[in-house]
Design goal:
With 198 residues, the chain is an alpha+beta fold. It has a domain at 91-137. It has six helices and five strands, in the order E-H-E-E-E-H-H-H-H-E-H. Strand 2 (59-64) and strand 3 (69-75) form a beta hairpin. Helix 5 crosses helix 6. The N and C termini lie far apart (38 Å).
Protein backbone atom coordinates (compact mmCIF):
# COMPACT_ATOMS: atom_id res chain seq x y z
CA UNK A 1 0.00 0.00 0.00
CA UNK A 2 1.36 3.39 -0.96
CA UNK A 3 0.43 6.62 0.87
CA UNK A 4 -1.38 8.02 -2.14
CA UNK A 5 -3.55 5.04 -3.05
CA UNK A 6 -6.46 5.75 -0.65
CA UNK A 7 -6.63 9.29 -2.00
CA UNK A 8 -5.76 8.79 -5.68
CA UNK A 9 -9.02 10.43 -6.75
CA UNK A 10 -8.18 13.68 -4.96
CA UNK A 11 -6.63 16.67 -6.69
CA UNK A 12 -4.12 19.23 -5.32
CA UNK A 13 -5.39 22.50 -3.89
CA UNK A 14 -4.67 25.63 -5.84
CA UNK A 15 -4.63 27.97 -2.85
CA UNK A 16 -1.38 28.72 -0.99
CA UNK A 17 -0.48 27.13 2.33
CA UNK A 18 -0.94 29.64 5.18
CA UNK A 19 1.49 29.27 8.09
CA UNK A 20 0.25 30.15 11.58
CA UNK A 21 2.08 32.95 13.33
CA UNK A 22 2.70 30.67 16.32
CA UNK A 23 4.65 28.27 14.13
CA UNK A 24 8.00 29.11 12.50
CA UNK A 25 9.09 26.46 10.00
CA UNK A 26 12.77 25.61 9.93
CA UNK A 27 12.93 25.93 6.15
CA UNK A 28 10.52 28.52 4.70
CA UNK A 29 8.45 26.67 2.12
CA UNK A 30 11.33 24.67 0.71
CA UNK A 31 8.83 21.96 -0.19
CA UNK A 32 5.20 22.99 -0.65
CA UNK A 33 3.94 20.22 -2.92
CA UNK A 34 0.78 18.46 -1.79
CA UNK A 35 1.05 14.68 -1.70
CA UNK A 36 -2.61 14.14 -0.79
CA UNK A 37 -5.64 16.09 0.35
CA UNK A 38 -9.32 15.66 1.02
CA UNK A 39 -12.43 16.60 2.95
CA UNK A 40 -12.64 15.56 6.60
CA UNK A 41 -16.43 15.34 6.34
CA UNK A 42 -15.87 12.39 3.99
CA UNK A 43 -12.64 11.01 5.48
CA UNK A 44 -12.49 11.47 9.25
CA UNK A 45 -9.27 12.79 10.73
CA UNK A 46 -8.77 9.76 12.94
CA UNK A 47 -8.57 7.66 9.75
CA UNK A 48 -6.06 10.12 8.27
CA UNK A 49 -3.92 9.94 11.40
CA UNK A 50 -4.03 6.13 11.31
CA UNK A 51 -2.86 6.22 7.70
CA UNK A 52 0.16 8.29 8.78
CA UNK A 53 0.93 5.64 11.39
CA UNK A 54 0.41 2.70 9.02
CA UNK A 55 2.40 4.22 6.14
CA UNK A 56 5.08 5.76 8.42
CA UNK A 57 4.74 9.14 6.70
CA UNK A 58 6.99 12.14 7.36
CA UNK A 59 5.84 15.71 6.80
CA UNK A 60 3.21 18.28 7.71
CA UNK A 61 -0.52 17.70 7.81
CA UNK A 62 -2.44 20.97 7.52
CA UNK A 63 -6.07 20.85 8.60
CA UNK A 64 -8.61 23.61 7.93
CA UNK A 65 -11.88 23.67 9.84
CA UNK A 66 -14.49 26.43 9.45
CA UNK A 67 -13.17 28.10 12.61
CA UNK A 68 -9.52 27.09 12.93
CA UNK A 69 -6.35 25.79 11.27
CA UNK A 70 -4.07 23.11 12.68
CA UNK A 71 -0.61 22.07 11.58
CA UNK A 72 0.75 18.69 12.66
CA UNK A 73 4.19 17.27 11.95
CA UNK A 74 5.00 13.58 11.73
CA UNK A 75 8.26 11.65 11.51
CA UNK A 76 7.89 8.06 10.32
CA UNK A 77 4.25 8.14 11.38
CA UNK A 78 4.95 9.48 14.88
CA UNK A 79 3.46 12.84 15.89
CA UNK A 80 6.30 15.22 16.77
CA UNK A 81 4.66 18.65 16.84
CA UNK A 82 1.29 20.35 16.48
CA UNK A 83 -0.22 23.79 16.88
CA UNK A 84 -3.54 25.53 16.27
CA UNK A 85 -3.69 28.95 14.65
CA UNK A 86 -6.45 30.20 16.95
CA UNK A 87 -8.01 28.95 20.19
CA UNK A 88 -4.66 27.43 21.15
CA UNK A 89 -4.37 27.05 24.90
CA UNK A 90 -1.61 29.29 26.23
CA UNK A 91 1.32 27.89 28.16
CA UNK A 92 0.58 30.24 31.06
CA UNK A 93 -2.98 28.92 31.26
CA UNK A 94 -1.77 25.32 31.30
CA UNK A 95 0.83 26.05 34.00
CA UNK A 96 -1.70 27.93 36.12
CA UNK A 97 -4.27 25.14 35.82
CA UNK A 98 -1.58 22.62 36.81
CA UNK A 99 -0.73 24.81 39.83
CA UNK A 100 2.88 25.04 38.68
CA UNK A 101 2.73 28.85 38.87
CA UNK A 102 0.52 31.31 40.71
CA UNK A 103 -1.77 33.92 39.18
CA UNK A 104 0.63 36.63 40.42
CA UNK A 105 3.61 34.97 38.76
CA UNK A 106 1.65 34.63 35.52
CA UNK A 107 0.73 38.32 35.53
CA UNK A 108 4.32 39.33 36.25
CA UNK A 109 5.65 37.29 33.33
CA UNK A 110 2.92 38.60 31.01
CA UNK A 111 3.95 42.13 31.95
CA UNK A 112 7.64 41.39 31.24
CA UNK A 113 6.67 39.73 27.98
CA UNK A 114 4.77 42.83 26.86
CA UNK A 115 7.55 45.16 28.02
CA UNK A 116 9.98 43.29 25.81
CA UNK A 117 7.62 43.75 22.85
CA UNK A 118 7.12 39.97 22.78
CA UNK A 119 10.68 39.44 21.49
CA UNK A 120 11.45 36.76 24.08
CA UNK A 121 9.53 33.53 24.39
CA UNK A 122 7.09 33.49 27.28
CA UNK A 123 8.54 30.22 28.56
CA UNK A 124 12.03 31.73 28.63
CA UNK A 125 10.79 34.52 30.89
CA UNK A 126 9.26 31.97 33.27
CA UNK A 127 12.60 30.19 33.45
CA UNK A 128 14.56 33.41 33.96
CA UNK A 129 12.28 34.40 36.82
CA UNK A 130 12.83 31.01 38.43
CA UNK A 131 9.12 30.23 38.55
CA UNK A 132 9.41 26.83 36.85
CA UNK A 133 12.05 24.22 36.05
CA UNK A 134 12.94 23.40 32.42
CA UNK A 135 11.34 19.96 32.78
CA UNK A 136 8.08 21.54 33.93
CA UNK A 137 8.06 23.89 30.95
CA UNK A 138 8.76 21.02 28.55
CA UNK A 139 5.94 18.96 30.03
CA UNK A 140 3.52 21.86 29.56
CA UNK A 141 4.65 22.42 25.96
CA UNK A 142 4.11 18.73 25.22
CA UNK A 143 0.66 18.94 26.77
CA UNK A 144 -0.09 21.93 24.53
CA UNK A 145 0.81 19.86 21.45
CA UNK A 146 -1.39 16.97 22.54
CA UNK A 147 -4.33 19.25 23.27
CA UNK A 148 -4.05 20.73 19.77
CA UNK A 149 -4.19 17.19 18.36
CA UNK A 150 -7.21 16.32 20.52
CA UNK A 151 -9.03 19.50 19.50
CA UNK A 152 -8.51 18.70 15.82
CA UNK A 153 -9.88 15.19 16.36
CA UNK A 154 -13.24 16.73 17.24
CA UNK A 155 -13.50 18.60 13.92
CA UNK A 156 -16.09 17.13 11.58
CA UNK A 157 -15.96 19.68 8.74
CA UNK A 158 -13.09 21.08 6.74
CA UNK A 159 -10.19 19.97 4.57
CA UNK A 160 -6.73 18.51 4.99
CA UNK A 161 -3.54 18.56 2.94
CA UNK A 162 -0.29 16.66 3.44
CA UNK A 163 3.07 18.25 2.60
CA UNK A 164 5.83 15.61 2.71
CA UNK A 165 9.29 16.15 4.17
CA UNK A 166 8.46 19.32 6.11
CA UNK A 167 9.63 19.74 9.70
CA UNK A 168 8.94 22.08 12.63
CA UNK A 169 11.46 24.69 13.76
CA UNK A 170 14.61 23.18 15.31
CA UNK A 171 13.96 24.90 18.66
CA UNK A 172 10.44 23.49 18.97
CA UNK A 173 9.87 21.02 21.79
CA UNK A 174 9.27 17.65 20.15
CA UNK A 175 6.62 15.16 21.13
CA UNK A 176 7.16 11.52 20.22
CA UNK A 177 3.74 9.95 20.51
CA UNK A 178 2.27 6.94 18.76
CA UNK A 179 -0.97 7.64 16.94
CA UNK A 180 -2.87 4.69 18.41
CA UNK A 181 -2.12 5.88 21.95
CA UNK A 182 -3.06 9.46 21.09
CA UNK A 183 -6.35 8.42 19.53
CA UNK A 184 -7.38 6.55 22.66
CA UNK A 185 -6.34 9.42 24.89
CA UNK A 186 -8.05 11.86 22.54
CA UNK A 187 -11.41 10.10 22.77
CA UNK A 188 -11.35 10.49 26.55
CA UNK A 189 -10.26 14.12 26.26
CA UNK A 190 -13.07 14.94 23.81
CA UNK A 191 -15.69 13.25 25.97
CA UNK A 192 -14.56 15.03 29.13
CA UNK A 193 -13.49 18.43 27.81
CA UNK A 194 -14.84 19.32 24.38
CA UNK A 195 -18.24 17.68 23.99
CA UNK A 196 -19.74 18.97 27.28
CA UNK A 197 -19.13 22.53 26.04
CA UNK A 198 -21.19 22.04 22.88
Amino acid sequence: MTPRSPFSHLTPKSQPDPTPTAEKPAVPKANDRIAMQGNIAAIALDNIFQLFDFAALTGKLEVHSPENIGNFYFTQGVLTYGMLQIHQRKIGEILLESQMITAEQLQECLRLHAQGLFQRRFGQILLEQGYIEPSGLDDSLLRQIKEAFFEALSWQEGTFAFYPDQFPAPEAVRLEARIDHLLLEGMVYIDNTILPER
